[in-house]
Structure formats: C-alpha cells, structure tokens
Specification:
single chain, mainly alpha, 70% helix
C-alpha cells in the first residue's frame, strides 16, 4: 500500500501513515521499513523514491555502531551509491568499534574490500 500511495500521490509521509509506519522522527523500526521500500524502488527504477530512502537511511541517528553494517550491506545490495559512501565514511569515524562487531565479522570479503577502498580514498583507513 505504501508504494501505491506514493505512486499515486507522491506524498511520502502520508504513504507511511497509510502503511502504519511513523517515518518521523527516524527510528530503527522505520529504517527496516525504508530498507524494504528502497529494495522496491531499486527494482522498479523509482529514482526519486530511492534517493529519498538513501537520504532517510543516512540520518546520523540511524548510523550507529550496531546498525551501520546492516545499512551498508543493504545499500550495496540496492546499488545505493550515495548511501554506501555515507556509511563508509561513518564506518571510518566509528572504525575501532565497528571492526569489533559480529556484523562486521559476517561481512563478505569482497564487501570489506570495497569499504576499505572507500576509506582509503577518504584517508580514513587505519
């Protein structure tokens, strides 16, 4: 219902309310919903909706040590390059803590390598 409401009205907040999700203030529950929406937006090439999802998920409140790996994994899977770069930057900021998490340990080597390349470009690689 969210996607149809958005397609017909373009109103994101209203579409969220109709889907039973409070989008403001940003929360981890809403972020899970937005990740699902971003997957659909990527699949159906809804560029504006995908950009909105990337912007929503890039909120500093959501980019915590506990969630950053999940969000960057999702960004990678949805070809969300802006969100990927924001997450890579935040991983650089929180590097000492993030590298100690079980989520980081479970990342594929190829994704760790992509993140390392971005961190090197930013001058944040330790």
């Amino acid at each position: 219902s969210f996607l149809l409401t958005y397609l017909y009205t373009g109103a994101l907040e209203e579409a969220g309310r109709m889907a039973g999700v409070a989008l403001q203030p940003p929360s981890f529950d809403a972020a899970q919903f937005v990740c699902s929406v971003m997957q659909l937006a990527d699949h159906f090439l809804l560029i504006h909706l995908k950009q909105w999802c990337e912007s929503y998920l890039a909120d500093p409140v959501l980019l915590s040590v506990e969630s950053i790996v999940d969000i960057i994994t999702h960004a990678d899977g949805c070809n969300a390059s802006q969100l990927f770069y924001v997450c890579a930057h935040q991983i650089g900021v929180l590097q000492d803590a993030v590298l100690q998490t079980s989520q980081w340990d479970s990342l594929s080597d190829s994704l760790k390598q992509r993140i390392a390349v971005e961190l090197k470009k930013m001058g944040r690689m330790k």
